[in-house]
Amino acid sequence: MATYAIGDIQGCFDELQQLLQQLNFDPVMDRLWFTGDLVNRGPKSLETLRFVRALGDSAITVLGNHDLHLLAVWQNRQRHLKSNDSLAAIFRADDGDELMEWLRQCPLMHFDAGMNMAMVHAGLPPQWDRDQALACATEVEAVLRGPKFHEFLGHMYGNKPALWSDNLSGWDRMRFIVNCFTRLRFCTHDGKLDFLHKGIPGSGEHDYLPWFALPQRKSRDLPIVFGHWSTLGLYQQDNVHAIDTGCLWGGRLTALELESGSVHSLPCNGYAQPG
After folding, report:
1. Which of 62, 84, 61, 85 is nearest to 73 (CA)?
2. Mean pLDDT, range 146-175, rounded to an integer
3. Average pLDDT of span 103-107
């Protein structure tokens, strides 16, 4: 039995199938962890959703920013649909609504106590330890799965607040939590979130650090697998495992075997240009 964490797919379904063949994946014996962003911009988001859902208990996926965006478009297409979205096939499908209902049951954070390993799509702010991160994820998951789902999506977009406080409440608190789990890359030295920069660490003239590099980060002892940061690529240091290697952009699709630490990947065709 093996557990494979797989980086952002974004509708690159054919490449996912090729990678699973390369791994000799057996859904009876093996398990898959998906770092989120199953959908969008790639050509086969519908097929990807159907496949991952059909895996049942053999797979777990955390929500990424594109997955949440899909849910927002599903609820209010005219307001949220973007010109470069490739989501239309999902809304035309007979099982589209069923897939959306399944997607909104997915977590923002997964923690496996047996492996002492966590998975998120993007990152954690320095003020959160493991238990607080799981508690914050649970707060938002309850809203996503509950009767205030539509109202939440109307307040989800935005970059503020940028700094955590235990006193945050209401939609500001929900938005901050979502932004950490699904959009975070850089922080200021005092822990403020930055969403302007998307390049590799040290690539710009700014004084920001990757979220995982802040010395005061309370989750430093927790091994974390994440995606989202394709320009960072494969990065494994200090208990963090970044595995979004830019399949959508013509990079690679990567699987990390969690038990052994082995890395498996394959080159991808590329369906979009960064930016």
Report:
1. 85
2. 96
3. 98
Going along the chain from its start, the domains and CATH numbers come out as 3-267 (3.60.21.10)
Q: Give yes or no for a contact between 30 and 2, defined as CB atoms under 8 angstroms apart.
A: yes
- CB–CB of 211/124 below 8 Å? yes
Query: Please, what is the Cα angle at 214 between 210 and 218, to 5 degrees?
Result: 120
Can you tell me the distance from the alpha carbon of 177 to that of 159, in angstroms, rounded to the nearest whole number? 11
CA distance 107 to 265: 25
3-state secondary structure of 132: helix
Q: What is the DSSP letter of 58?
A: G
**Distance, first Cα to last Cα, the chain:** 39
The answer to whether the Cα torsion of 33, 39, 43, 47 is positive or negative is: positive
The average pLDDT across 81-92 equals: 90
pTM score of the predicted model: 0.96
List CB contacts of 230: < 8 A, sequence separation 6 or more: 8, 244, 245, 246, 248, 249, 251, 274
Length of the chain counted residue by residue: 275
- Determine if residue 233 is left, alpha or beta; phi over 0 gives left, psi from -120 to 50 gives alpha, anything else beta: left
| CA-to-CA dists, residue 38 to 99, 105, 192, 244, angstroms | 12, 14, 28, 12
Number of Cβ within 10 Å of residue 220's Cβ equals 16
Residues linked to residue 60 through DSSP beta bridges, in sequence order: 33
60 contacts 102 by C-beta, under 8 angstroms? no
Paired with 117 in beta bridges are 112
Is it the case that residue 275 has pLDDT exceeding 80? no
Q: Which one, of 132, 137, 134, 123, lies nearest residue 213 by Cα?
A: 123
